[in-house]
Structures are given as structure tokens and as C-alpha cells.
Amino acid sequence: MNFKSIIAYFLLFLPLLSNAQQIKTNGPGDQINYPDLISHADLVYHQPVINSEAGMPVGNGNMGSLVWTTPSAIHFQINRVDIFGNSSASDNFYQRNTDYCGGAGFVDVDFGEEVFTDHDFLEKLSCYDGLVTVEGKQIKAQILAWNKQDVMAIKVNDNRKDGKSLEINLRMLRDPVQQRGNHLAVSKISTEGNRIILTQQFKEDAYYGGSAVVIGIKGRKAVAAITNQSTVKLLVSPGNDPFTIFISSAAGFDPQKDLVEQSMQELEDAEQTGFEKLLTSNETWWHQFWQKGFIQMHSADGVADDVATNYAYYLYVMASCSRGKYPVKFNGMLWSTGGDARQWGGAYWGANQSCLYNALFASNRLALLQPMFRMYSGMYDRCAEAARQEWGSKGIYIPETVGFDGPPKLPDSIAAEMQELYLMKKPWKDHSKRFWDYAYTKMPFLSRWNWKKDGGWHDGRWIVLTKDSSTFGQTSHILSRGAKIAYQYWMYYEYTMDTAWLRQYAYPMLKGIAEFYRNFPNVKKGSDGRYHIYDVNDNESVWGGQNTAEEISSMMGIFPAVIKAAAILDTDAGMRPVWQEFIDHLSPLSVSSDYSGEGKSDNKITWIKALPPVVRGNGRGLPDPNTMPMWFFDLSNRGANDSLLQIANHTYDAYFRSGIHQGTRVYVLSRLPVAGVLLGRVN
Predict the structure, then answer these.
(1) d(CA 245, CA 157)
(2) Which of 638, 490, 11 lies closest to 294 in space, CA to CA?
(3) Enclosing H/E stretch for 206
(4) What is the per-residue pLDDT for 469?
(5) Cα separation of 8 and 356, whole Å?
(6) Within a 10 A sphere around the Cβ of 43, how many other Cβ atoms?
């Protein structure tokens, strides 16, 4: 599934292809057979999967699950984009990969005997209709996630002789009560009439998060019963009449909100609507979605066909999990099957998230970007506070790794010392015990605390070390994520020309990032009359460098955008010349010839990561192929000036010292194919 998503990501700039002899184009009068076109992306299994993670995805953008089988049952893990076990201020997840998110409960539809075996088995995902069908021995189930509300529906045709009973189990993801310091996770099962219920509550200090799952049935009699302390079930009476199982869910952060009542109401709405009308509603939504754009490709060796297939599958997956309150997370999306503990935890990784979202602009699926915009706009005030507290700057600071709720407020004394340490005004060895004790319990994957290194357990105590005996970590001093997020707001405007959007959402982000850079204490005008930036990372590989590729590119991208946006909106007339002065005097991108004697003999000057001094990493190295900031901000393309275009081509060649051929490997997150197309090197 990850491979398919990345293939689509490579196609971000597909419309730029100039030698498109294998691409069929269609005029306004042409008829597109969308069912046939999209059906190439369908998944069809003729035997049950061995591992649950190979199940088929179904979701409504906010709630979803993979669908997989064991010989006697169909299985689900109900997941949501808006369930988080803790906030960013937590003091109880100081060991990596122990925080959790996303999971609401396990569901099993158990037929009591082996009905899903290698014989008479079929499982099919129809991407065009958003429907999963599972067939076994005299059993057929159709599964969908309702596009209008958070309900999944399973229509079952059970044609077994004489009819047989079955069970629907709703199971907890963990023990009923789990405590970690003062973090408490409580799961409860209950029944109400012929419905079964599972709730979760997460509490820590002022934080509260909750979820609910309710299951009901229509078309058969069922009795609800408690199986054990972690499982509740519906005992479904025998019969051969078709029936429908409805699974509703809800989540929220208000302890006064009755999530069970909300789930009950949505379940009742679905029951009254009935499966056939739910299916019709879903088909209407999905068919309209597919008509927003497509690609159709063919080549004799089938590679082009495969790319087009994976592109459609990627769009199906994103439409299934990115229409909710929050962006879907990179590490599992809505497809976790083994509980809610995730490698990399509950934070959002900017670079990894971008691999899911960058392609949505050119694919004309801008609605799927809204969860990302909602989250970052929702944390604006916290990011403004973080800019002041952490860095002594203005505007907003969006960390590379951040929780769903944004950076939490710091005590003033901690913030003051943090500024001194992080801006290199105070030697790391002189940090106070008060600062160390405060940082000890904070989450190490968050950028603010990313200098922390796991030391393991020793005599019952978790040991915290530093990664480089300094304030730096992989994501600690990355400022460019904020610029990349803001630039995506600007791209949304450029694709839509929606001035109201520009005013309300995009411009505050653009201005916030520009002002952050302009007032950043370690951006200074040197004796050469140019602005330089010091003691920052270049993505994760260079720590504490000068004029890093990421940060110079970000400023080169953001300042022209904010100036243009201000002019369009006829606002901040007094700031426009200030921003123009900044960009006019910004240092150029660092190049290999900036290192004495390099890149001069053959005149093959390339861009590099950073200028010295560098705390850790190779500043002479080529820009990170996973982020490629010169290309992200559209600084390097066929329309660039000759000097920049020459450096861009030399840089691109340097990534492929042995040339590009059939066996050339490209890393899974790499933007190199995108960069090649932008340079016109489509072959």
C-alpha cells in the first residue's frame, strides 16, 4: 500500500510530461468509461490473506478499517483520525513509541464454523463504488463506510442450510484500566437493549479524550451479552434472511459530550436509511469523486498501466481516510490492525505527511487537503506562542514533528533558558537542573525535545541522554516545515484563485512564517550586506549549520509569496517594502564552490546542504533527495535563469553518478523523479 501511495506521489507533476506518447488525452466531448478505468485499481483475493495488514481498506475519511478474514470470521479494527491518547504536554510518554492514537475497538463477525477457506473464497475491493465484498461457503458480506456519517454497514447474506447463529464481538484494544504515571486510559463495555457499546476515556492533567463504538443489527433478532471483562457480543439468531450490521463511532475532547448518545443517533439514522440507500449514497459520492480527474496510460511492457493503476488506488486510499477533522497520520493511516500503539507514536512528521498530501493539488482532489489545513490553522495561536517562547521571534513557528494540538505553552523560566540553549547563547553543558528535570518527562519525538536520547531502563528508572552532547537532534532546529506548510496554503490559492481563502487562511500563515524568519535572532545581516542564518538543521542530516539549503530555500519561497498575497489583498502596504528588502539581500543558496577549491576544476558547481561550521553531518553533501527544497518551492525549473538552471542540472546529475538506467534505485520518499520532470528531463 505504501508503494502505491509513493508511486502516485511521483506523478505530482505528470501534466508536465512533454513526450506523452503513451498517455491518452480526452477532449470535452469524449466519453470516459470510469467504471472500467478505475476498476484496474481494484483488489481481488481468491484466497484469504495470511496477515491482517493485507486486508482491504474501507473508510469514509474520518472512520475506517481494513477488512480481513480468518476461517470462521470477518475482522475489523475500527480506527478514527481524531482519537489521541494524550496531548503534546504529556509527561508520561518519555520513552519512544509508547504513546498511541487512532484505535477505537476490534470487531469480529464470527459465523461459528469455517466458511472462509481457500475453497469458494472471494474478497474484492471496488474502488469505483467504495465497497468491499467478502464471499465464502454460502456466505456473502458487503461492507461500506457511509459517506455522510460515521457508520460502517455490513450486509450479510447467510444461505447456510437450516440457518445458523453467529456472534458479533466488540473487543477492547487494551486492558480495561491502564495507568502510566497520572495518565489514565479506561475502556468500558456495556449493552443497551440489543446494542453493544465500547467506550474509551483518556485523562491526564487537564487533557481529556474519548471515543465510543456502538453496534446494532437490523433484519435478525439479536441478544446482547457480556462475554468477559474486555468483550461484549451480539448473539444473532439463526435464519436465512439477509441482515445488516451497523457499526457507528464517535470521538471528542469534551468530557461533557455524550459520545455514546452521538453514536446511537448516527446508528439509528443509518438503520432507518437502510443498507441499499447507504450504498446508493456512497456510489453517488464516489462516482463524482472519480470524475474530478484521471490519468490513463499504456505501454507495451505494462509499466505505464501499472503506474496508472497505482495512481487510482492512491486516490481511493486518500479519499477513504482524509475527509475528517484531522489529517490522517503517515504511520498506519486508518489501517492499523494490531491495536493503537504505533511506531513513531502519535505525532505528525512533516516530511512523511507530505508524501501523502503533495500529489492532491495536481490530482484536483483539493477537498482532501482540508484536514491538514484545519489542523495547522487550529494550532496557529500555539505556534505563535512557540515562536516567542522557544526562539524569541515573532510570527509563527510550526515544528517538523508536532502533536495534533500544537506546541504547548512553557513556563516562562523554562522558555527563557530554552532560548539561550537553542540559539547557542548558552553552552549546553551549563543547562540548569530545573530545565533538565522539566525536559526529562517530555516526549522525545517532538521537535522541541528531540535532543533527548533513550538510555534504557536502569534500576527501575528511565535514563535520558543527549544525542550529541548538545541542544541538537534530528528535528530540533528545522524551521523550514512552517514554510512548506504555508507554501501549501499558497498553492491552494493558486489552484483555486479563491481570494476569500487567501485572506482568511493562507495569508495569516504566509505572514506568520515570513515574520518568524525576519525576526529570528540567528538571522543576521553580515558585512557583505546579506542576511545569513546560523545554527539550524538541514532536514535531519545536518545539525547546526549555516545557510542551510532547507532554510534559504524556504525564505526564497515564502517572501515573494507573502508580498504577492499582500498586494492581491491590498493589505500591509508598509510591510511589503520591508519584506522586499529582506529577499533582495538574502544570501544565495550555498554551492559546492563555497568550500575552498571544490567544484572549480570541471565547473560542475552543485548546491550543497550547508556552510560551516556544522555541529554534525556533511555540509558538503547534496541536498536531501527526500525534501529537495529548491524544487519544493519551485525555485528550480525550466523557467529559471540560466545560472540557476545550470546549477540545478549539475546537482541533479550528481545524484546519479552512473547515469539513470533500468536498474537505478530511488529511495521510497525521494523527490528526484519530480525534480527531473521539472527540469524537463522526462526520459
Answers:
(1) 11
(2) 11
(3) none
(4) 86
(5) 9
(6) 17
367 burial (CB, 10 Å; 0-12 / 13-18 / 19+) is: middle
Question: Which amino acid, residue 97?
Answer: N
Query: d(Cα 623, Cα 625) in Å, to the nearest integer?
Result: 6
Q: How confident is the model over 357-385, as pLDDT tens digits? A: 999 999 999 999 999 999 999 999 999 99
H or E element, residue 375? helix 370-378
**Residue 148: Cβ within 10 Å count:** 14
Bridge partners, residue 79, by sequence = 64, 103
Type of residue at 575: M
* CA–CA separation, 350 and 352 (whole Å): 6
The predicted structure's pLDDT at residue 101: 97
pLDDT at res. 468: 87
Which three three-digit cell numbers place residue 103? Answer: 484505535
As a whole number of angstroms, the longest Cα–Cα distance in the chain is 91
For cell 482532489, the residue is: 365
Q: Which residues contact 655 (CB under 8 A, 6 or more apart)?
A: 622, 625, 672
> Which amino acid is residue 307, in one-letter code?
V
Distance CA 173, CA 339 (A): 6
Which residues in the chain land under pLDDT 70? 1-30, 597-602
A 10 A CB-CB count for 521 gives 15
What contacts 585, CB < 8 A, 6 or more positions away?
A: 525, 529, 530, 531
DSSP per residue, 585-608: TBPPPPBGGGSTTTT-SS----B-
Q: How far apart are CA 477 and CA 568, in angstroms?
A: 33
Do 69 and 114 contact (CB within 8 A), yes or no? Answer: no
Strand arrangement, sheet containing 139-145: 43-45, 122-126, 131-136, 139-145, 151-158, 243-252, 207-218, 195-204, 183-192, 177-180
Predicted confidence (pLDDT) per residue in 573-599, tens digit? 999 999 999 999 999 999 999 997 655
Here the cell at position 163 is: 440457518
**193 burial level (CB within 10 Å; 0-12, 13-18, 19+):** exposed
Cell 474519548 sits on residue: 210
| Beta strand ranges found along 173-283 (DSSP E) | 177-180, 183-192, 195-204, 207-218, 222-228, 231-236, 243-252
Amino acid 30: pLDDT: 65
pLDDT at 27: 53
pLDDT, tens digit, for every residue of 339-359?
A: 999 999 999 999 999 999 999
φ/ψ bin of 364: left (φ > 0), alpha (ψ from -120 to 50), beta (otherwise): left
Coil, strand or helix: which one is 83? strand
Kindly state the cell numbers that stand for 666.
Answer: 530511488
CB 204 within 8 A of CB 86: yes
pTM comes to 0.94
- Amino acid letter at 111? F
Q: What is the CA radius of gyration of the chain?
A: 27
Task: Kindly report the backbone phi and psi dihedral angles of residue 638, in degrees, each rounded to the nearest multiple of 5, phi listed first.
Answer: -65, -15
- The gap between the terminal CA atoms of the chain, to the nearest Å, is 26
| 82 closest CA partner among 298, 281, 323, 262 | 323
